[in-house]
């Protein structure tokens, strides 16, 4: 531990460019120093954009994990900071794009009903669609179904659900997103089978 601290002290004196050169050779202390220099600033940047501390932490960890895994082929010309901020921003934009897609189906159960429109020339009766949707919701795993119903039917926020179920807000969000993904596929298949002309 003492030797590692001495190494860290020595690494604090060298430039980002030198750290990168050492990192490319698999130097873990150089990687740790690079992380130490930038992780807090990147976290604050990500949190400001995402407004979610857990997701911000995940983004920063993913950025540094990617740097370590690609260390041997990492080609950087210029300063390290712009690259790190750019990588962080790109991951955040990917998350936001995904959330926009999910939100298309997450506003209400009505969004799921709209999926059936393209399967026939006639409008399906709302009651039939509602029965299909309710059946598929009921078939979700227990915890996932509970999160989904609290979110969509009782219109509770992720934070309120987390408090009620005594789980993290991050877990609630992941469960809700997984539920939407599963339901989207299952309801499309069910609608197709149910209304397939014979």
Describe this protein's structure.
- The chain has 198 residues and is an all-alpha fold.
- Helices cover 75% and strands 0% of the residues.
- The protein has helices spanning 2-11, 16-24, 28-50, 53-69, 80-106, 109-113, 126-138, 142-152, 158-165, 169-194.
- Helix 7 packs across helix 10.
- The N and C termini lie far apart (73 Å).
- The model is unreliable at 1-6 and 104-124 (pLDDT under 50).
Task: Tag the structure with descriptive keywords.
198 residues; 10 helices; elongated
User: What is the averaged pLDDT score?
Assistant: 76
Structural class: mainly alpha
Provide the helix percentage: over 70%
Radius of gyration over all CA atoms, rounded: 23 Å
Unreliable spans: 1-6, 104-124
Shape: elongated
One letter per element, helices H and strands E, the order comes to HHHHHHHHHH
Characterize the main sheet.
none
- The total count of helices amounts to 10
Query: What share of the residues does DSSP label as strand, in percent?
Result: under 5%
| N- and C-termini, Cα separation | 73 Å
**What is the tally of beta strands?**
0
């Amino acid at each position: 531990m003492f030797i590692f601290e001495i190494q860290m002290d020595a690494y604090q004196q060298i430039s980002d460019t030198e750290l990168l050169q050492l990192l490319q050779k698999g130097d873990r202390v150089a990687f740790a120093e690079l992380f130490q220099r930038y992780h807090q600033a990147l976290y604050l940047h990500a949190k400001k954009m995402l407004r979610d501390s857990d997701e911000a932490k995940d983004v920063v960890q993913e950025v540094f994990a990617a740097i370590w895994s690609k260390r041997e082929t990492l080609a950087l010309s210029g300063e390290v900071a712009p690259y790190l901020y750019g990588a962080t921003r790109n991951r955040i934009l990917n998350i936001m794009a995904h959330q926009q897609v999910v939100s298309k189906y997450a506003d209400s159960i009505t969004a799921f009903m709209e999926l059936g429109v393209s399967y026939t020339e006639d409008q399906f009766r709302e009651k039939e669609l509602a029965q299909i949707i309710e059946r598929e919701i009921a078939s979700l795993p227990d915890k996932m179904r509970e999160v989904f119903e609290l979110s969509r039917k009782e219109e509770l926020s992720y934070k309120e659900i987390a408090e009620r179920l005594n789980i993290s807000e991050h877990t609630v969000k992941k469960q809700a997103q997984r539920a939407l993904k599963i339901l989207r596929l299952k309801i499309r298949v069910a609608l197709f089978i149910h209304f397939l002309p014979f």
